[in-house]
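Issue: copy button drops trailing tokens. Both records pasted manually instead:
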Amino acid sequence: MFCRLINEDLHKWRRLPGRKPLVLRGARQVGKTIAIRMFGESYDLFSELNLETPENAALFSQGLKPQEILQAIKLKQRVSVSESGSWLLFLDEIQACPEAVAQLRYFYEDVPELHLIAAGSLLEVALQREQISFPVGRVEFRYLYPMSFEEFLGASVGQDMVDVFRQVPSPVYAQEELFRLYHLYALVGGMPEAVKEYVRTRDMVAVNRIYENLFTAYIDDISKYARNNSMAKLLRFCLKTAPLAAGRRIRFAGFGESAYGSREVGEALRTLEQVMLVALLYPTVSVSLPLLPNTRKSPRLQFIDTGLIHYVHGIQHLLIGINDLSADFRGGLLEQLTGQELMAARNDIRKLPRFWVREKTQSQAEVDFLESCESFPVPVEVKSGAVGKLRSLNRFMEMSPSTKIAVRLYRGSFKRQQAGSATKFSLLNLPYYHAAKINEYFAL
């Protein structure tokens, strides 16, 4: 059982004066249930109900009031809690019981002292199919992704290395070891069961067996949310193809060298996005805040995890001992991994990374990511090599006079330098293993 950063956020939620029932969202097998069980150890009483079990779901379908449901749970589990004691009720797989979703508002209104967390896989598509929604203003959400690099360090090496990783900038003595471990993280991935198996065996063959079972389970899950056989076939194709296109811009029409059209592929990928197996990162053409996505342009495909990507590709052996991920033969690995880190850095919102494009007939440019600092956007390039080759980044800086700093993630140590030709700016060169710490460097 690995400590997850979501645990810190859950404790903050627990202390909120106007605390609402919390819904933890995330793809299957990213560790939602284990994280909540670990959090539940801090309570006097922790009750867990899996709502895929008919007798548990029946508690919410009999028209009972929240207090009556809680009394039934106490009797069923033969537990009690004092007036001053703390109680966490965990409703797992809540998508299996639409009545329980509707009941969340009444728990908030009638039993505000109860701490209630719900979770489930396939939430979005299940609720859409049943045409119900979470009660507006009566619940709040958190998001869990595969393990971040920081969490991987805690699981595979220990807290001392986590403490070193958290230092900004990194101490010189630890940089090469952090690069080595980040390359290992890219290989193993962040799915908790795979990380657990690697920590136990240090054997990638054993890890592959985990990914074989996990990917098969994702494929089998499609039958639970595809509306017909034709849709199921398309979803399976898109899920099997997505790892091969991860980190790159895609076109819906003919996706994966298929004969499928734009509309049907778009619907399939958006469905996979709902279950959080992929994310469609749309570019912006803006050079000032807010960075609104342009959904008419081709998105970049973000897959759930690099470990699954390498399993599907069958290329783990090519990453063993690699010295620079930006020199990876696929080209998109470091962009995928950086996107993974940026998404996992925020548990309180579903924040998809943005990137910038300028698509003109004679002048095309693309910046890998855009972050924000105070009132201006910050372009982020993921690239090693000479600074003089950052043409797209320079173009962005020329078009955005309010932006004074830019970031390059590369295979090297932290350094600040003046850059630009027509427009001068401050370029922060950061080690690419610190993608999740970009905003902390702005204060240096």
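Record 2 (pasted manually too):
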Amino acid sequence: MENTKKHFPVCSQYMYANTASAGLLNDKLMEWRQEHDLDYLIGGSNMKTKARFELIPKVRKTVAKFFGAKTENTALVPNFSLGLNMLLEGLGTEHTILLVQNDYPSVNWPFEYRKLKIEYAVLDENLEGNILKKIKSEKISVLALSLVQWVNGIRIDLDFLKTLKRDFPELIIIADGTQFCGTTDFKFEESGIDVLGASGYKWLLGGYGNGFFLFKDGIKSKFTLQTMGFNAADINAKGRDDVRFAMHFEPGHLDTMNFGSLAFSLDYLTSLGKGAIEKHLETLSEKAKREFTALELLEDAVSARTSHSTIFNIKGDDKLFQKLTENNVVCSQRGSGIRFSFHFYNTEKDIDAIAQLLKSS
């Protein structure tokens, strides 16, 4: 996938290892965005009305198809955090929630802020076992977690979630896919997940201001949603009481440029091949794990797991981060270390170069 670098101008200036913070803008996507705004400039409301009835439904279908979900159970939201908060407004207070310790704040905080009864699973190499133990010992009715942990990149075993749902069919599994979606050939309807939400600005490369939520059919009876608006009823003055579940997440107008950008990027990823992207990222993950393990820079919880994402947090201080920055490596300081995150526009040569910088520190 080395040839994909040419579509991302940032890669000509930097060694970009920071997709977990923000995915890159594709030059072809920028052209589409410019054309979109030009159409708005010369078309005004005519363009926006057409886009609302043609582009937005197309985006919803594109998202559903890309992730193997049902279009009628797909909601477009500006970001994951807003969508999750809308969902939780419809969740009863009788539930006991299982969260992962130190998970992304926008996953844990909405539950904690509502003062629900909460249990926590320890985030270590035995994450799946820790989750199962809690579910067996406590009266857990909702499991909410990131599919990939934002600080250290630990990725939950999707087969484990499928088995968990089979063994505990009444358990509601809510997942944040923001650090996951766009990295594998994932099929939502075949998974054990009941609700999957994600923002589109990281691995999906859709830019900011867009995201989505996917729902299984059975989840509709578990929530009493409170959000409502004219858009949810397809601008039908008599449609207030006939709004389908997913449309409660779209009470107002959606930005056609932002959501059009998401659809454009999903089409681009499809053209590259979801399977090809997944295979390339597996190669990068294995390569990075070998290099960082050899340098004894990874925490035991990561080193001990058989498979991992392409997000790695290594031991490193401000001085090392400054050295990486001075050598045009774009990464992030997270927790007590330095986080690298590799996407399909990265290569094994990038990892070799980073490893060499680390060895010379």
